[in-house]
Design goal:
By secondary structure, this protein is α/β, with parallel strands linked by helices. Helices cover 40% and strands 16% of the residues. It has an 8-stranded parallel β-sheet. Helix 5 links the parallel strand 5 and strand 6. It is globular, with a radius of gyration of 17 Å.
Length: 271
């Protein structure tokens, strides 16, 4: 195999739900080709994620154009400085749409200083209140903020009818155990394939199969062996294989369980 050659995307037997990506980063033609290629490798539903005030309506529009795409609504912690009560009012209206399956991605990120921590907590708590009111799950982003994440989620978790997911989980096993005990799923992506991600694989090893979700976070975090190119939902089979390997189960068994997990989290009324 030459230095530039990469293996083909695995053709798996099971279906996969892409629970976290950013289709709005693509042009219209790129979305079309991405969706076609994703379907060809067994992806039957895609959730595209809102992160800022500017892209709430954009992801809704994308989701409205495809029968197999849904979206979320919410402010990423990097955008917390733009959060206010007016945004929460808009969020309540948008979150009632049937194509909106969750509130997110929300929570706390202290790794980068894009927003003041106090403002992040206020935005997190405010958007959690909306999720509780509209009875939608949440998509959680947390980084270097374990103590505050525990404190806020601990107060809100019991009020959430369907908890949601801690996406792109890279935090400690302690936080994983806390979130699992509160009823949340953990989302794993291409990081599971990275050479130095033993901490993530340890969490996967200790997470029950019925609490695992798969995602790409595309266009970021492309899995091995396609690191260095933009990520896309159609690379999910590589992530599924990596997680199955860590769990020491067949890919078919993993996909069947994780597909049902994804339905239970985001599509509880699906037959």
């Amino acid at each position: 195999m030459s230095k530039k050659a990469r293996p083909p995307i695995p053709q798996l037997n099971g279906r996969i739900i892409e629970t976290h990506c950013h289709l709005d980063y693509l042009s219209g033609e790129e979305i079309e080709s991405t969706m076609a290629k994703s379907r060809s490798v067994g992806i039957d539903r895609v959730i595209t994620i809102a992160v800022s005030r500017d892209n709430q309506r954009v992801v809704q529009k994308i989701a409205s154009q495809y029968d197999d795409v849904w979206c979320t609504q919410g402010l990423h912690p990097h955008e917390a400085d733009t959060w206010d009560s007016e945004f929460n009012d808009e969020l309540k209206l948008c979150a009632g749409d049937q194509i909106v399956v969750a509130v997110g991605e929300i929570v706390l990120d202290y790794f980068y200083e894009h927003s003041d921590p106090k403002k992040q907590i206020a935005a997190f708590e405010g958007q959690l209140d909306v999720a509780i009111e509209v009875q939608k799950p949440v998509v959680i982003h947390t980084r270097e903020a374990e103590s505050d994440t525990k404190a806020v989620l601990g107060n809100a978790a019991r009020k959430l009818k369907i908890k949601g997911v801690i996406h792109s989980f890279t935090s400690s096993l302690d936080l994983a155990e806390f979130c699992l005990a509160e009823g949340f799923y953990l989302g794993f992506n291409g990081i599971a394939t990275f050479k130095n991600a033993d901490n993530v694989r340890e969490v996967i090893r200790n997470t029950p199969m019925n609490r695992i979700l798969l995602e790409t976070d595309a266009p970021y975090l492309t899995p091995v062996p396609y690191r260095g190119v933009p990520n896309a939902p159609y690379y999910l089979p590589f992530i599924a294989e990596a997680v199955a390997d860590v769990k020491e189960v067949s890919v078919d068994e993993l996909l069947a369980t994780v597909h049902q997990n994804s339905l239970d989290c985001f599509f509880p009324d699906a037959l």
